[in-house]
Amino acid sequence: MTLGLIWTIILRFAIQDISVEGKLVMYYKMTLGLIWTIILRFAIQDISVEGKLVIYYKMTLGLIWTIILRFAIQDISVEEMTAKEGLLLWCQRKTAPYRNVNVQNFHLSWKDGLAFCALIHRHRPDLLDYSKLSKDNPVENLNLAFDVAEKHLNIPKMLDAEDLNTTAMPDERAVMTYVSSYYHTFSGAQQAETASNRICKVLKVNQENERLMDEYERLVSDLLEWIQKTTPWLENRTTDNTLSGVQDNLEEFRKYRRVVKPPRVEQKAKLETNFNTLQTKLRLSNRPAYLPSEGKMVSDIASAWKILETAEKGFEEWLLSEMLRLQRLDHLAQKFQHKADNHEEWTRGKEEMLESQDFRNCRLNEVKALKKKHEAFESDLAAHQDRVEQIAAIAQELNALDYHDLPTINNRCQQICDQWNRLGTLTQKRHFDLEEAETVLEKIDQLHLEFAKRAAPFNNWLDGAREDLVDMFIVHTMDEIQGLLDAHRQFKQTLGDADKEFQALVELTKEVENTANKNQVPGGVDNPYTALTATDLIQKWSEVKELVPQRDQVLETELLRQQSNERLRCKFAEGANVVGPWIESQMDIVAALGMGMQGTLEDQLGKLNELEQGAIQYQPHMDELEKCHQDVQEAMIFENSYTQYSMETLRVGWEQLLTSIHRNINEVENQILMRDSKGITQEQLTECRSSFNHFDKNKSGHLQPEEFKSCLVSLGFNIRNDKQGDAEFKRILSSVDPNNTGYVLFDAFLDFMTREKTDTDTAEQIIDSFRILSGDKPYITADVLRRELPPDQAEYCIQRMVPYSGSEAEPGALDYMSFSTALYGESDL
């Protein structure tokens, strides 16, 4: 048996060129001589002549095993392992799907014969039915495998079934030698396995890319839908025209800024990151660039986001201006009602008095008195003309500012104006009647007349002073409250002269009483020229003196409030003047890192991560400033001269800083991924970055087409200045700018430079792999795909391959050529 095994090895590896007829007529002696010649040549050529004469039995067997190793096993190679380990791994992979088979060695694992049957069935399922085999029939299994191998596979029967089954520990070298014959017989199937692995790798990459595309489309649709729903709300300028309603709108807007918008900002940054990562993976796997659906480009998202932020800024400005307008409207409405109340109080009974005919039955002095009294009334009426005009002016301003209760305001203003016109007409008529009666009446009490003339303007001054002392006001700055304080201080300086006038009128009233009593004038105590009495003046004067300290208190309270507002301005300015320059300095650092010339990519990534952590740690400063800004807004503070930074500019700067850090981190990570996958050295990467930055004149982070062309020429690319050169440059530009953005990013530039020097998978390689699986046929069947590929990737191919249209195709044949070209964008999938 040993000689037969050696003879088999020699036939296969040593004398392959001898004809079949020659083999059949070989004599036993010639065989032994040839065997000895081979032993001398390959096994003991270094042994001396004396050593050759004393070879023992064990040495002979060792030499035989050396020959077997040299010609049958040594050339077996699986994943760079030793021949024995590689052969064992090959057996484990081929028999893994079969039940009751567990190959762990070359002795006990083969005793039941199922491992031999599994190897045959894996490569030639038509030779035996594995499902009918049983572990309980080891000898039958072994004989079946040996007979089939000898008859159909031309593998000599080197082992004995009963001997292999009954031996406690079968000879490992004999089993290994016999199994190696199976390996060499089925070595062609190894090519199919390699082709299967290549297809699995490509399909796995393609499936992952499709998943990223679907996720990008879903996230973009969700974000755009949210923007489309939110923008109309921010562009809405309708309100119930009340201060409380606008304040509710402002609180809702603050909630939107704090709660609703931040997750969407993160979603937008994630979208840009996923898109860049997807494009990088597509370039690295030699796939065409991903072009999103219409309206879902990154530029579309940026445009929609810009519209949203514009509407957001306009909405906040409108809310603040609307609050200021409504506050002023409420103040004007209260002022209108107050002045209207005073005017109606003054006009009460005036129409009845003017229509009275009391002077018809009066004596001359009484008529004179009535005339003088009417003159005093006319003086008072003229003095009230300014108040009526003020009421009308306030009503007109309320109409111009679209006050919410205009019908009530306009109705009352119209009533006051109509009444004022009637008073003017009645006053003129009564004046004419008294002029007619004046010829009959001669005596006039000079004292009453003087009192009436002096008391009327003083009384008007008192009424005006009372109105001014209780007049409501609204101020926003220290200058405004200081102006009110100065005006009130000037008013108090006039109280001395007013007191002298008051004392003079009181003395005049006393003199009238004394004169009337002395001369016993009927009704002389009653002043016929005015309805004012000393009591009225005394009461009003007392009220003015009581209102002065009250006004002092109101102004002092408002002064304290404005001082508090001033402190809020200083507090916000102190924080803003720190946060603003910090954000600007961080933006400068990020921009410098974005140039890519500060150390290795890992150093740049580390610095960017440090900047990101720094920004996260700096977030409490922004939150504190937001709280301070909310206090400022609640205090109705709209201007701050202590700082050039507004909360809006700081928010925008903060969002730009975070977006810039995330974008640069993503770019550096993509560059690291590209460097590692392409095998680029740091020196090559630095050289590419240096060339890119040199032609990026405006430091924008990308190259215009002409700058990119100049960069290529400087790197040695031969781009001629003719039509052929222009066509070549357009081809290169389309590969680095597939979305036609009009500029070239550094990632695309680096990918182009490395792609020119490295090899990647191609459609032709995938077609060759499918051809191996199909047995050199122009088509492939679903059964072959399911047998050679994992289940999920086999179904992936079956669903996407179109039926083969050739005349020689069998039923269910699939076209793997069009499918392979579609994977690399060379046709429609």
Automatic annotation (TrEMBL):
PROSITE patterns: CH (PS50021), EF_HAND_1 (PS00018), EF_HAND_2 (PS50222). Keywords: Actin-binding, Calcium, Coiled coil, Metal-binding, Repeat. Pfam families: CH, EF-hand_7, EFhand_Ca_insen, Spectrin. This is Alpha-actinin-like isoform X1. CDD domains: CH_ACTN_rpt2 (cd21216), EFh (cd00051), SPEC (cd00176). Residues 683-718, 724-759 form the EF-hand domain. Residues 81-187 form the Calponin-homology (CH) domain. Residues 202-229 form a coiled coil. PANTHER family: SPECTRIN/FILAMIN RELATED CYTOSKELETAL PROTEIN.
